Amino acid sequence: ELGVEIGNGIECIDYKNEHECISYISDIHLMHKIQHLKPKSDNDVRLMIRSMANQIVDEMDGTLLIGGDVSSDFAIFEMFVRELKLVMDLRDRYFRVIFVLGNHELWEFSGEPLDDIVKKYEILLNECGMYLLHNCILYKDSQNSINRINTEQILQMDTKALYKTLVTAKAIYFGGIGFSGYNKTFNAQNGIYRNTINRDTEIAETQLFEKLYGKIVSALPDKRVIIFTHMPIDCWHKEVEYHKDYV
């Protein structure tokens, strides 16, 4: 009834005979759905989003990854996050929710530095007990707690230190937007970030993400790392080499 057309699925990943079930969903595009359904009030919008949140909770298992392009309007993004939390609370279902941003999440913030935009989303998600994966590593330790290794730490740590930190991790996630620095046709010049990100910034962000990914591959050649990005690998990796053990 909602016309929900979204990429989704469930992966079960084996970590030394321990299974980590991961559900993923991407490109919900709430603004398109709102425009299509033509709700008559804010309450109608909220009910639509709550119905979608119930559907997601029905279908998910384990950790939930949400892969960007939820909404180009921050207020609607916030409504989705809070409704998802409300549904989890009402149904007494508690699981980890990890977001990456998409290009649509940047549309509303023309002229603002990318770091400031990312911080807005991070504050909201932290407030709701959820996580933002943006140019960083999130990992589940032996006590089942989620820890973060941020961008600067990844760059500063040598590969041995990075491996030592993560060698006993039960689950390892790395991701972010990824950006489209290597895409010659679908990029900032075509307005995919509206006026928020220009081509030079896009290329710089792509090169940063590629560098972080390369560091992780060098440090963790034999670990089962989950790579979660909004843009496909050929947009942010020059060689487009898939690691045989990574997801």
Topology record:
Layout lengths: L6 E9 L2 E9 L3 H8 L4 H18 L3 E4 L7 H17 L6 E3 L14 H14 L3 E2 L3 E5 L5 E4 L1 H6 L2 H8 L4 E6 L22 H21 L5 E5 L3 H4 L11
Structure overview:
The structure is a single chain. The chain has eight helices and nine strands. Residues 1-7 have low confidence and may be disordered. It has 247 residues and is α/β, with parallel strands linked by helices. Helix 2 (42-59) packs across helix 3 and helix 6 crosses helix 7 (199-219). A five-stranded mixed sheet has the order 1-2-3-4-5, covered by helices on one side. The protein has helices spanning 30-37, 42-59, 74-90, 114-127, 151-156, 159-166, 199-219, 233-236, and strands at 7-15, 18-26, 63-66, 97-99, 131-132, 136-140, 146-149, 171-176, 225-229. The radius of gyration is 18 Å and the shape is globular.
Features:
247 residues; alpha/beta; 5-stranded mixed beta sheet; 4-stranded mixed beta sheet; 8 helices; 9 strands; 19% strand; disordered N terminus
For the CA atoms, what is the radius of gyration? 18 Å
How many strand units?
9
**Which structural category do the helix and sheet elements fall into?**
alpha/beta
Give me the number of helical elements.
8
What gross morphology would you assign? globular
Percentage of residues in helical conformation: 25-40%
N to C succession of SSEs: EEHHEHEHEEEHHEHEH
Arithmetic mean of pLDDT: 91
State which percent range the strand residues make up: 15-25%
Q: What does the largest sheet look like?
A: 5 strands, mixed
Low-confidence stretches: 1-7
Give the termini separation: 32 Å
Strand neighbour order, sheet with most strands: 1-2-3-4-5
Give the quaternary arrangement of the chains: single chain
